[in-house]
Design goal:
This protein starts with a strand and ends in a 12-residue tail after the last strand. The chain has an eight-stranded parallel barrel with strand order 1-2-6-7-8-9-10-11, surrounded by five helices. Strands 4-5 form a two-stranded antiparallel sheet. Helices cover 32% and strands 22% of the residues. By secondary structure, it is an alpha/beta fold. The longest helix has 11 residues.
């Protein structure tokens, strides 16, 4: 069965990368949740897609150059990675997309601490579009599963996956077609797609071996939440 993964929580239903978005995804019975992670100037891993927080007046606060307290004063619903992991509390695996060129040490430290306090390696999936970032995460947390996130090149995706000894690849849906999906399945890869909000396409691709979809709207794939 194709897995349903909430994109940035469930960004089509609630603010992305927030507790509200996470709760919306959980309520719909998703199989996994995907989030974006960056690290603040004072070494706090937070949920944030963009490199900067845009203020109402147009000023940009670069995440890497700003401390968490200052960012939180501007965006009160800005959660830390630690808070989100504890909030999910092992209900579903968390796919952590670490943005390119982000300092990985605080993320590794955070997850190692949780692994020492009841969390398991299967509670996480580490991913990045940047190979050096993903290799650094894998070196620090070799027991955690990884996924190569690739924007367009299937050849590069496979090369990266081989380097990391992973069979999980996540690719942009714009560059997929049924023949490629079937080929990847035959080669033993677990192929995931982002960001897909089309149930019909997902159903067709599932027939050829698609392992999972990352979607903004888990409600259109799981209209009847589990009781």
């Amino acid at each position: 069965m194709t897995k349903i993964i909430g994109h940035r929580g469930a960004r089509g239903l609630a603010a992305e990368n927030t507790i509200a978005g996470i709760d919306a995804a959980l309520a719909l019975g998703v199989d996994e949740i995907e989030i974006d992670v960056r690290v603040t100037k004072d070494g706090v891993p937070i949920l944030m897609h963009d490199a900067a927080l845009v203020l109402p007046g147009g000023e940009n606060l670069r995440i890497a150059d700003t401390d968490y307290k200052t960012l939180l004063a501007t965006k009160p619903d800005l959660p830390t990675l630690d808070a989100i992991i504890r909030h999910i509390n092992k209900q579903v695996p968390l796919m952590i997309e670490v943005k390119p060129h982000v300092a990985t040490e605080p993320i590794i430290y955070n997850i190692k601490n949780l692994l020492e306090h009841g969390w398991k390696s299967q509670d996480f999936i580490l991913g990045s579009k940047n190979q050096a970032t993903l290799q650094s995460l894998h070196a620090g947390l070799p027991e955690l599963p990884t996924t190569v996130i690739e924007a367009w090149s299937s050849l590069r995706a496979v090369l990266r996956a081989r380097q990391l000894h992973t069979k999980r690849i996540t690719m942009n849906q714009k560059f997929l077609w049924f023949g490629f999906i079937a080929s990847m399945r035959r080669r033993g890869y677990n192929l995931y797609v982002y960001t897909l909000n089309n149930p019909g396409r997902a159903k067709r691709w599932a027939k050829y071996g698609l392992s999972g979809i990352i979607t903004d709207r888990p409600d259109i794939f799981r209209p009847h939440p589990p009781r």
